[in-house]
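Example is below:
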Amino acid sequence: MRRILRLFRPHRGRLTIVGLLVGLSSLVSVASPFLLREVLDVAIPQQRIGLLSALIVGMLGVAVATSVFNVLQTYLSTTVGQHVMHDLRSAVYARLQRMSLAFFTRTRTGEVQSRIANDIGGMQSTVTSTATSLVSNVTTVVATVVAMIALDWRLTVVSLLLMPVFVWISRRVGAERKRITARRQKQLAAMSSNVQESLSVSGILLGRAMGRSGSLTERFTDESERLAKLEVESSMAGRWRMSTIQIVMAALPALIYWAAGVSSAFGVPMISLGTLVAFVTLQQTLFRPTMSLLQTGVELQSSLALFQRIFEYLDLPVDVEQPREPVVIEPVRGEVRFDSVGFSYSATETGEEPSTRKTLDGIELTVPAGGSLAIVGETGSGKTTMSYLVPRLYDVSEGKVTIDGVDVRELSFATLADSVGVVSQETYLLHASIAENLRFAKPDATDAELVEAAKAAQIHDHIAALPDSYDTTVGERGYRFSGGEKQRLAIARTILRDPPILVLDEATSALDTRTELAVQQAITALAAGRTTITIAHRLSTIRDADQIVLLERGRIAERGTHEELLAEGGRYSALVMRESELEPAA
């Protein structure tokens, strides 16, 4: 609760004004029963028309003032609440942007989206109205109780006897709803993940290709039904107990009339009709804020489950931290060095039991500025992991990776992004126009720069032939384009960024021979004058590399040029022979 309250700290000024407005509204509204007593006990019995008119005007004034105060405080409290929700959304998004790649490899995208959209969205009523409701209702309750005591303390005692029981019941109901809310939000996240996975372009293709569209529909229907049951359960939790409170409080006026009648029958001085009516009016006034306070308590306890889910993300440890005082390299020449590098994935990332085998072990390697390195090896040998360490998508477990002699952990994220460009086999394009996708790398790029980058990537002619040219929408994940076209768009995007170091992670492995040739020409243009590290799947694409390294179980087994490794007749030579034997069959 203290942490939740700290969210409102930056908005103390507005909340103070809200509190004043609420206090004034509550105090003004309490005046109505006293005015009513004067009407019934003095103005009407004594036929004082002037006083009666003044009292009626006063009652109307109270109604107008209360309405004005309520409108103003609602505006201010809603503004504060929306700012708090905005701060939470921004904080969660910023936190997730700082997480390492490992977090996203083990977390479903739909789960992340659900936390930001559903969990924070579910807190809207709490953060926009709870603070105001608490201040308003507490002020009203206190002012009303004081006014009731001023009218008749004995009737006040009768009215408040059951209040502790009501509070205890509401706390029990709140705890029950909190448990159900936690289950409901988990189910909502599961359903969001299902929608995100099955209704994406990839999901639709997979479902139809495998003939599982019906099964996916049934799965979604089952999850939706479970959510519906939880919603009903949440809505009905404690409903009978809260209804009992309402019945008892609604019956209290009758109890007061009975108590007044009985007391007068036993010789207690008769309470005036005006006082009795005013007291019952105050009691009815007390009923609304009391029930609201009890309901607010229930909602607060329920919303704690939402806050806990949000705070879980805000408290996630950041594996890859930006240095407090980053080193500046100007200009970046592009020398890359692996210095005794070792790396191991955690069990949570691999989904396997902890193993003593390292993914990378004792890697010693230098790529001179402007030089080219190709990394080859069997699946699981550690090739892609090496490519992740240069742009610091992961941090090394041992040793260090340096750029121009500076540990990448000492460079700012902005410097790394400007220095290292990555083109991977998995090309990701935004659901936007071609121009917007290219400008994602350089927001201020001119149209001429876009055309120049596209020409270098061998994709300009294809773009120019489209009806909307560079304004063509690429579609979800770029599915309106072929694999080779998407790769060339990604290469154009990287050319536009103009990094001195280039990491190519099997960028042509999924392409046919003709498309691979076009993409390879684009890569050749991109690599000119840059330090290039290529993760090779097809060995024919890396024969001209200055240095070739063959990894085996995380260690460097062989290194040298293409000719040197062939002459050795080792594992690399065997891989080349095997590929040449497979090519005719392909």
